[in-house]
Amino acid sequence: MTQAKLIDGNAFSAGLRDEITARVHEIRDGHRITPGLAVVLVGEDPASQVYVRNKNKRAAECGMTSFEHILPADTPERHLLTLIEGLNDDPMVHGILVQLPLPRHIDSQKVIEAIRPDKDVDGFHPWNVGKLAAGGVGLIPCTPLGSMMMLRDHLGSLAGMKAIVVGRSNIVGKPMAHLLIRENCTVTVAHSQTRDLPGEVRAADIVIAAVGKPEMIKGDWIKPGATVIDVGINRVAAEGGKTRLVGDVDFAGAVQVAGAITPVPGGVGPMTIACLLRNTLTAAARLHRLDIPEAHPWN
Ligand SMILES: Nc1nc(=O)c2c([nH]1)NC[C@@H]1CN(c3ccc(C(=O)N[C@@H](CCC(=O)O)C(=O)O)cc3)C=[N+]21
Ligand SMILES: [Mg+2]
């Protein structure tokens, strides 16, 4: 069997960020507007700090302004809500992202619902969730959006294909299922209670792995020629006391069978960040009623 084609998220996201940069310069020169992204992190988790720094670095590379708010882990919920109210009203801020998970004493849903829906670049506010489910125009969650861009780039039309989404989170699984339905796939959403998961996966032309369990989806579950999008980013122990990143798919097995597959790292992860920047540009364009392609529904 020939090896699957690798869907290169690093290269794809670099191209996307170049397009975003060009558009940011255009609206800066033409309209004196600089898209601004505010990233809020509560707590000292080192991995989260790395992500937040990465998001701000990429935003700056694209010519956007970024505002970083790092709050102590014991920040009272009402302080966070007050910060969000300020960002909602700040004309320099077009996108707001509150890094999840939040400390346990904070109600994440309350925080998500405090963000102005038109600045909710994660697409987690019920208003955006509803727009996606009902086929309207809102902001689409970054990981599903990036995954869909790679699928469309590799496959063209998805119409009539069988897709399985393994995982039903609000962040990835559910919005991904809605996007696949919108693209005219026949969609199965599998989860921890699904009977015969290997059998369900074997029926699928498109596999979206979003469970958060390292290498859970085995190579011999994959239908020959299928397209596999591995959303999992799991840090596991490696030789010599080190760690390494693996996806939710057994890559070594799946690459022998699939038609195409995203690697981890270098697949969905960098697309998520590029789509966050794209959503910030989209939000800025809509807030200022700029007639640029990014202000219009994607696809
Ligand atoms: N409100 C909110 N929105 C998020 O989008 C969000 C969040 N909270 N909390 C944490 C997760 C995680 N996340 C990642 C983004 C990019 C990479 C990424 O670029 N990964 C690189 C590798 C990075 C590494 O080496 O650790 C890659 O896959 O190639 C990973 C993880 C966004 N998240
Ligand atoms: Mg479950």
Automatic annotation (TrEMBL):
InterPro entries named among the record's database cross-references: Aminoacid_DH-like_N_sf, NAD(P)-bd_dom_sf, THF_DH/CycHdrlase, THF_DH/CycHdrlase_cat_dom, THF_DH/CycHdrlase_CS, THF_DH/CycHdrlase_NAD-bd_dom
Ranges for domain Tetrahydrofolate dehydrogenase/cyclohydrolase NAD(P)-binding: 141-286
Catalytic activity from the UniProt record: (6R)-5,10-methenyltetrahydrofolate + H2O = (6R)-10-formyltetrahydrofolate + H(+); (6R)-5,10-methylene-5,6,7,8-tetrahydrofolate + NADP(+) = (6R)-5,10-methenyltetrahydrofolate + NADPH
SUPFAM superfamilies from the UniProt entry: Aminoacid dehydrogenase-like, N-terminal domain, NAD(P)-binding Rossmann-fold domains
This protein's GO CC annotations: cytosol
Keywords: Amino-acid biosynthesis, Histidine biosynthesis, Hydrolase, Methionine biosynthesis, Multifunctional enzyme, NADP, One-carbon metabolism, Oxidoreductase, Purine biosynthesis
Enzyme Commission code(s) on record: 1.5.1.5, 3.5.4.9
A single GO molecular function term of this UniProt record: methylenetetrahydrofolate dehydrogenase (NADP+) activity
Binding, NADP(+): G167, R168, S169, I233
BP GO terms, sorted: L-histidine biosynthetic process; methionine biosynthetic process; purine nucleotide biosynthetic process; tetrahydrofolate interconversion
Pfam families registered for this protein in UniProt: THF_DHG_CYH (PF00763), THF_DHG_CYH_C (PF02882)
Signal peptide, first to last residue: none
Annotated metabolic or biological route of this protein: One-carbon metabolism; tetrahydrofolate interconversion
Subunit structure: Homodimer.
NCBIfam families for the chain: PRK10792.1, PRK14186.1, PRK14188.1
Family recorded in the similarity comment: Belongs to the tetrahydrofolate dehydrogenase/cyclohydrolase family.
Free-text function comment from the UniProt entry: Catalyzes the oxidation of 5,10-methylenetetrahydrofolate to 5,10-methenyltetrahydrofolate and then the hydrolysis of 5,10-methenyltetrahydrofolate to 10-formyltetrahydrofolate.
Descriptive protein name: Bifunctional protein FolD
Gene assigned in the entry: folD
